[in-house]
Each structure stands twice: as C-alpha cells, then as structure tokens.
Amino acid sequence: MMSEKITLSPEQKLGRIEEIVQAHPEVAGLQAYEYLRSNVKEQQVAFINGERDALSLDYKDLNPANIERLKGSMLLALKSLMSGEQNPKTRALYRAIEYRYSELFMLDMARIVNDDSYSEQERAQAREMFVSTNEALYGQPDRGIFSAIARKSLAPLLSGGDSDGTEAQKIRGELGALIGSIDQTDYELFVPSDEVMERVGALTRSRFDQLVDHIDTEKTYDVATMAEALDAALTKLGGKDLGWRVAIVPKSNVLAVSAHQKLVEVGENRKPAKGGRA
Questions:
Q1: How far is CA 134 from CA 115, 138, 182, 226, in A?
Q2: 257 with 246: CB under 8 angstroms?
Q3: Are residues 172 and 72 in the same domain?
Q4: Cβ(105)–Cβ(70) under 8 Å?
Q5: Is 110 helix (H, G, I), strand (E, B) or coil?
Q6: Predicted confidence (pLDDT) per residue in 249-263, tens digit
Q7: Pick from 4, 28, 138: which is nearest to 94 by CA?
Q8: Are both 120 and 237 inside the same structural domain?
Q9: How far is it, in rounded angstroms, from Cα 239 to Cα 244?
C-alpha cells in the first residue's frame, strides 16, 4: 500500500493546511495577550466608589475550560499535520502551532499563579515554569540593556521626595523589592537621529495617511463614531473583503485587535477622543 505522503499531491497537502486553519482559527491565530485581559478598570471604579477595599488581577479568560479547549484544538491540528510534515509549508505551520502550544502552557502557568485554590508551593513552581518558558520562547533580556533602561525609566520612580505620604512610600518600597538592585552599566541606549525619525515618519505617512484621511482632526469621537471611523479604515485597507470587522465590546474600555477573529474591538466604556494625531 502506498503511503499517504506519496499519494497526496502538493495541492492536496496545501488544501489540508487551509482546512486546519479554517477549522481551528483560534489555534492558527492564537495571541496570548488576548487571554490576559482583566477587569481592572471596573475594579478601579468600584474602589473609588468605596465598594471594594483593594484591587486584584482577575483574568476571567484564564480558566481551565478555555485552556483545555485550546489545548485539544492544538493537539488535533498537530496530529492532522504529522503525515505531511515533510512539506515545507506543513512543517512551518506545525512549528508555529508548537510555538503557540508553548504560549498556551505559559497561560496555564499564569492561571495557576493567580488561583488561590492552589498551594503556595504549587504556585511558586508554576511561577518558575512560567519564567523558564517565557525566556525559552522570547529570550532573556541582555543584562546591560536592562540595566540601562532601568536606570533611565525605573530609578526615578524609586527616588521619592520628602513630601511623599505613607502610601506612596509603601508603593515605592514594594517596587524596589520587586526590581532589586540595578546594576551599573556603560551600555548606551540607542536613540535614532532626527533624520531617521523624519524619514521613517515620511514613509509611514505616505503609506497610511490615505487610510485615515476621513478622520476629522477637530472632531471628538465617541464609541459609536470611533467604530464607524475604524470600519471605514478597514474598507480602505481591504480588510472588509478578507472578513475583518469592527465590534463594540461590552464592559471594556480598550481598543484591541484579535487576529484569529479578524476583529477590531472598541470598548463600550472608552472615553471620547479627538481625531487629531496622538
């Protein structure tokens, strides 16, 4: 009997890849940050109104059901790709899903760290595994670069003034304990020249200005008109022809993009904004 690798033509193998992507869009387009959304803004409002005593990070999408569903989809996708793994496109998708599976593992470790039902030992182990996976996937920051950035951006936050209240001093102390000592370094952070900034700016404007020229720089946009403006930009970009859309998301105040859903999200609680360039 001939093996499936021989009997399947390149076109058939590519068709299989397309079927897998269509069947499991959340796998092909997994973006880990989408599952790290928190209701912190709602908590802030409740805190200000005296309805709660403290804020806590509550990632509602980091739940076992979501993670197990994604894990099952990824394993099915990987299994269906195995017989065609010699095809370069199939192999590339296989590796990409393996990468996303590792990101999913990180999300699962983050879920455990934020779940009080686990013991402190289990949460500490999950924290270590999260860090190890993060460094394996994204790399470990260069010590010199980190120290230079920390001295520029974090050190000023740690140097409080005499007028600081007790709460401010407490927060500074917690930040200092979290950061630890900042190493001395001779590393100089890269700063682009004015010429480079101008050239990049000109390139960006030439590419994107026509996509947003319908936005009135003097007008203040609320949530509904923001969505309309973004929808018009999607049309100009050709995104609507590819299935992209804009949606107003309840109980949210952010602008976000979900690649696997082909969705631009506008939080219903987002504050009005002027149409001028930021």
A1: 20, 6, 22, 35
A2: no
A3: no
A4: no
A5: helix
A6: 887 888 888 877 889
A7: 28
A8: no
A9: 5
The CA-atom distances, in angstroms, between 188 and each of 142, 146, 152, 249 are: 13, 11, 11, 42
Same domain? 132 vs 46? yes
DSSP string, 61-100: T-SHHHHHHHHHHHHHHHHHHGGGTTSHHHHHHHHHHHHH
Q: State pLDDT tens for residues 41-84.
A: 777 777 777 777 776 767 777 888 888 888 888 888 788 777 66
83 inside domain:
yes
Residue 155 lies in domain: 141-187
Residue among 168, 188, 185, 184 nearest 176 (CA): 168
Is residue 270 classed exposed, middle or buried when 0-12, 13-18 and 19+ CB atoms within 10 A define those classes?
Answer: buried
pLDDT tens digits, one per residue of 88-145:
777 887 888 888 888 889 889 988 988 889 999 999 999 999 999 999 988 888 889 9
Read off the pTM: 0.61
**Is the Cβ–Cβ distance between 35 and 107 less than 8 Å?**
yes
